[in-house]
Amino acid sequence: MRLLLINPNTSAAITDKVAAAARAVARPDTEIAAVGGRFGATYIASRAAYAIAAHAALDVWAAAPAHDVAVLACFGDPGLEALREIADVPVIGLADASLNRACELGQRFAIVTGGDRWGPMLAEFVAARGLTPRLAGIRTVAPDGAAIARDPQGSTSLLAGACRAAIEADGADVVILGGAGLAGLAAAVQPGLGAPVLDSVEVAVRLAETAGGRPRGARLGLDTAGLSQALKDRLGQM
Q1: Cβ distance 65 to 33 under 8 Å?
Q2: What is the H or E stretch that residue 88 is in?
Q3: Sorting pLDDT into bands at 50, 70 and 90, what band is 165?
Q4: What gap in Å lies between CA 57 and CA 39, rounded to an integer?
Q5: Does residue 170 come out as left (phi exceeding 0), alpha (psi in the -120 to 50 range) or beta?
Q6: For a disulfide at 49, which of 18, 41, 137, 214, Cβ 3.0-4.6 Å?
Q7: How confident is the model at residue 87 (pLDDT cuts 50, 70, 90)?
Q8: Considering only CA atoms, which of 92, 96, 94, 101 is closest in space to residue 128?
Q9: Is pLDDT of 175 > 70?
Q10: Other residues' Cβ atoms within 10 Å of the Cβ of residue 100
Q11: For residues 78 and 95, what is the distance between their CA atoms, to the nearest angstrom?
């Protein structure tokens, strides 16, 4: 299987981190190509950056190598529904996949991530999927995901504390550790907690490996201006 990992920010370090976390849990026969955005925020932690990231994700997809499935590697899934509209392969979002998995494992889930602006953004994301009654709470730690990615060991106790509070104070029976910058840290914060902690990258990769084919994306035939030639061509052909 050829898996395209779309990182819609411009940080090569985050792209490499997510790719390493994905390869650590992927099957031996899964080939992973990780591609970062050509433009936009270094790390997505605001509504403005999120809006730009949706365009960046489409831009990456348009010029990407051939693949059988795509994973949108930003928790919050900017551009997910647009990609699903036009792609002819399954597209998996970190947040979408993690919410569904959490609901399979428990009755109430919590989200722990970096960056305080993500709190209301993720609450809206959960509400849009009709899952607010299942949401125990969202806890954001002070640094954003980029800072956590730069110092994962130093951030472990902070994240573990937030997960513990989500379980003990908020009543969560599943915790999602969300964000590309937090990839690979769930195992480090899990010890001593009374509920499973999900790594959003691991959840998405495992779902991608089981995803079946899908019909060709919608034929939009868009007349566009100012886009990359690759994206312009792909949208115009559909």
Answers
A1: yes
A2: none
A3: very high
A4: 10
A5: alpha
A6: 41
A7: very high
A8: 96
A9: yes
A10: 14
A11: 10
- Spell out the domains of the chain, with CATH numbers in brackets: 2-94+206-237 (3.40.50.12500), 96-199 (3.40.50.12500)
**Residue 182 to residue 209: CA distance in whole angstroms:** 21
The rounded Cα 212 to chain-centroid distance in angstroms is 20
Structure tokens that stand for 193 in this block:
């907690």
List the Cα angle 57/99/111 in 5-degree steps. 95
* Angle 204-205-206 from CA coordinates, rounded to 5°: 95
Structure tokens at 92: 């998996």
Alpha-carbon torsion, ordered 107, 113, 118, 120, to 10 deg: 30
For residue 3, the 8-state DSSP code is: E
Structure tokens at 16: 């490499």
Give the pLDDT confidence score for residue 208 in this predicted structure. 97
pTM of the model: 0.91
CB 140 within 8 A of CB 118: yes
